[in-house]
């Protein structure tokens, strides 16, 4: 592991992030950025931001982005915000607003 970056308490469901992560897992950083740039999914914004942070951390250590690849990318569930919505017959229906923790680790090819 050369560098890592983590985004915590992101306001998106982990189940929506995981298919986007599967597209770039194990790819070079430059290829992964180009894949995410042409993708039309909401999680790409979060992943691009974290990937840029990880490459910046690697540049501080003296490694170029052209030699790095994504060795590990994980999305874990964060805390859930619980809300209620009025339902029929005076009942309450629960709403769960999910959050995610995304972690990216880069390594040399």
What does this structure look like?
By secondary structure, the protein is α+β, with helices and mostly antiparallel strands. The protein has one domain (3-108): Ribosomal Protein L22, Chain A, CATH 3.90.470. 35% of the residues lie in helices and 36% in strands. It is built from 3 helices and 5 strands. The protein has helices at 14-24, 29-37, 43-60, and strands spanning 3-10, 68-77, 81-86, 92-97, 100-108. Strands 1-5-2 form a 3-stranded antiparallel β-sheet. Strands 3-4 form a two-stranded antiparallel ribbon. A hairpin with a 5-residue loop joins strand 3 (81-86) and strand 4 (92-97). Helix 2 (29-37) runs antiparallel to helix 3 (43-60). The termini are close together. The model has no long low-confidence stretch (mean pLDDT 96).
Looking across the biggest beta sheet, what order are the strands in? 1-5-2
- Please estimate the helix content: 25-40%
The unreliable regions are: none
Q: Work out the helix count.
A: 3
Largest sheet composition: 3 strands, antiparallel
Q: How much is the average pLDDT?
A: 96
How many discrete structural domains?
Answer: 1
């Amino acid at each position: 592991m050369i560098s890592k970056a983590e985004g915590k308490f992101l306001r998106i469901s982990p189940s929506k992030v995981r298919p986007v992560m599967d597209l770039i897992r194990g790819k070079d950083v430059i290829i992964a950025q180009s894949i995410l740039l042409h993708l039309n999914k909401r999680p790409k914004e979060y992943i691009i931001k974290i990937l840029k942070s990880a490459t910046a951390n690697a540049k501080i250590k003296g490694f170029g982005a052209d030699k790095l690849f994504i060795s590990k990318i994980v999305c874990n569930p964060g805390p859930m915000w619980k809300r209620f919505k009025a339902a029929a017959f005076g009942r309450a229906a629960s709403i769960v607003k999910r959050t995610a923790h995304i972690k990216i680790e880069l390594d040399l090819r």
